[in-house]
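We include the entry.

. . .
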Amino acid sequence: MAQIHVRQGMVQVSDGKTKPQPMRLLLTPDSLTLQKEELIYMQPQDTTSDSLTKIRTILVRREQVGGLGLSVKGGSEHGLPILISRIFKNQAADKTGELFVGDAILKVNEVDVVKASHETAVTALRTGGSAVILTVRHYPQASAFLLRGSESSEQKHTQRNSFPKLQKHWSDVLTIQLLYAYITRYSTGTDRMRPNSFVVQAIDGTSSGSILCENGNILAEWIRCINNHIIALTDHAIQMANKVLLPSEHIVYMCWSCERQPVMKHWQNWRPRVVTFKGADLYLSDTPLVNTRDWIRCGRVYRVYESMLKILKDSDLLDDRRHAFVIQTGYQESFYLSMETREELLRLEKAWNRANYTAVQQLGNKTFGCTWRNRISGLTLDMNTGFSLYDSESKSYMWCYRFSQLKGSSDDGKTKLKLHFHNQAKSHIETREIECSSLQTLLFCMHAFLSAKLSSVDPNFLKNF
């Protein structure tokens, strides 16, 4: 399972039109927030600035001594929000420079505490881990009340007579929800890779802009962490969806890829595509399929066992996009797609094998109409018995072979297929030639049944997928 890490760091961000600007990235379990540093005029203990009254997201790293370095008051039993009542000097909360007395805590990591009791909120703060994400909003009236009586007369005198000064403050510029989001290093619609940068795109179309990292190691680490969060969120969404689906209709896998357009009428030759395995079907869609209407309206749906996945070698690539593969269907269609990384491509391949195995096991057998020696027949592929040919006129089986007896095959690319079986009794190869109008679908089904049979016979093969 993908590991989830809270992460924070400096990057450069560009919208493609202006000079890159320094920003801070804050990665939480369900979102990526871009923050910019602002200078604001504040009196000491003055927290009435408009920028503070907005919802803010702050990362606090727990310390061994002092913990988070704050105290809270309030709770649902008092009809009050959870308010920060004290921040201890030189401890974790104080070191952020972004938390203030009078801040109402809305969330602790992913736990909503807006209507929580005092005890529930304190438990969430204590058990939030070593890096705690606090979502807060400042209430100046609460700040004035909580600070009342907590200062000495000398402090109050100093506060009243001090001059305003500039203070640094991090404000949220953009928050991208990571559920069903995707990350790419390629320039939009092309095979040109951005140098040391990437873009995160949300399902609602929100884009991070080009995020430029200092070096390749930092870039790789950010991409890995963000991808892990996206995968974890997608897996959780799939688990929740499967709870209301029949086992035969379960979603096996869903991921983003990019499809090369067959007709290049403009400079954008590549478009994002979602690959989904659900039940026995493969779905190719423009956006993630999240409700019943999406599944029904998807225009490209194919049986997994009637399709073929081919991972391309570098010598077979059509342009500079790497990690490419081709999906061929029994309807003579072919789709050229690419994944961002080799790891993603391997996950897709494993998902394909899992989906194919499950689909074939549920199907059990499939029969194709064909002719053998000019007689109308039916060739059956069966997980238990292998190949068998049924003659319609005599209503009897003309021959049967186990899958393990198949030693090879050849075809003319149109309708004719030769199957070469090993006859153990006579210790020689027997060739059976048939004609089938759905030759490509038959070939793909043969491959699917053989792969599923191997999976069922070899437990180690299944463990790899």
